[in-house]
Design a protein that fits this description.
The chain is α/β, with parallel strands linked by helices and about 260 residues long. It has helices at about 20-30, 70-75, 85-95, 110-115, 135-145, 180-195, 195-200, 205-210, 220-230, and strands at about 5-10, 40-50, 50-55, 100, 125-130, 155-160, 235-240, 240-245, 245, 250-255. About 30% of the residues lie in helices and about 20% in strands. The longest helix is centred in the last third of the chain and has 15 residues, at about 180-195.
């Protein structure tokens, strides 16, 4: 069975321990989708110079944030790693060099979304870093090179946010600026149209894109998922919500029989 590829808008790490519409959406996806033998995650929160994958058998839970309640720092997600899958990822991305990082744990872009999906923490996970020295198209093409993993029982997950800009938001009022939902809708329309070229060249999408993707690390995981998607797969959206400067919109490719 071909595993799905999906992009998850992850928002605040508090979503990992809160019961809200978004965490329930992830939990529902975990129940509805076919169970993978392993998961490859591209998280917004592991940026590197050079490509790396987690290659340890038991990666630690990384609490890469501050200013949250102690309950969030107490959270652990002890899912196993998968060194064999890490080596497989490196082989698929060859001849580009990939470092096998046996010490890196799972950042909150990994565990905050997978904890609601697979609360038993019993699905092996490998995380792939985002090499910020690479051009945007490389990330899309890397997703295409990794797409074959879907036929090997591996679910491909990008974890970020289509819109992520906290610097240009007035948190005193909590208002959502017009550009945030407007760009989110533009991105969704392009995804439905299969216009991946425009999504890769997001700098050409105007001022809304410049505001919505102000540093790109939360957007780039989407490009991996688009690259891993088949041309005949119809994207489906869930958790489709925008607040302040963040989009929680998630996108699923494959598993057409699943009801989210």
């Amino acid at each position: 069975m071909r595993m799905p590829a999906l992009f998850l808008g992850h928002g605040s790490p508090m979503n990992a321990i809160e019961d809200n519409a978004w965490s329930r959406g992830w939990a529902g996806a975990g129940r509805a989708l076919p169970r993978p033998r392993a998961i490859l995650v591209i998280s917004a929160h592991w940026e590197t110079r050079g490509v790396a994958v987690t290659a340890g058998p038991a990666p630690e839970t990384i609490h890469d944030f501050g200013g949250f309640p102690q309950a969030l720092f107490d959270a652990r997600y002890p899912a196993p790693g998968d060194p064999d899958l890490a080596r497989r990822v490196a082989a698929l991305l060859s001849p580009d060099p990939v470092a096998l990082d046996e010490r890196r744990g799972f950042d909150h872009g990994v565990w905050s979304v997978l904890a609601p999906m697979y609360p038993a923490a019993d699905v092996p996970i490998v995380a792939l870093s985002i090499d910020r020295t690479r051009p945007d198209r490389w990330h899309y093409e890397a997703g295409h090179r990794l797409a074959g993993l879907r036929d090997e029982g591996v679910m491909i997950v990008g974890s970020g946010d289509i819109v992520h800009n906290l610097r240009d938001v007035n948190f005193r009022t909590g208002a959502t600026p017009d550009w945030a939902p407007r760009f989110n809708e533009t991105a969704k329309q392009l995804i439905v149209a299969g216009d991946h070229a425009s999504l890769i060249d997001y700098a050409g999408l105007g001022s809304d894109a410049a505001l919505a993707i102000n540093s790109a690390e939360h957007y780039l995981p989407l490009l991996y998922v688009l690259g891993a998607a088949d041309a005949d797969e119809t994207p489906r959206f869930f958790n489709d919500d925008v607040f302040a400067g963040i989009s929680m919109t998630s996108v699923l490719f494959g598993a057409e029989e699943a009801r989210l």
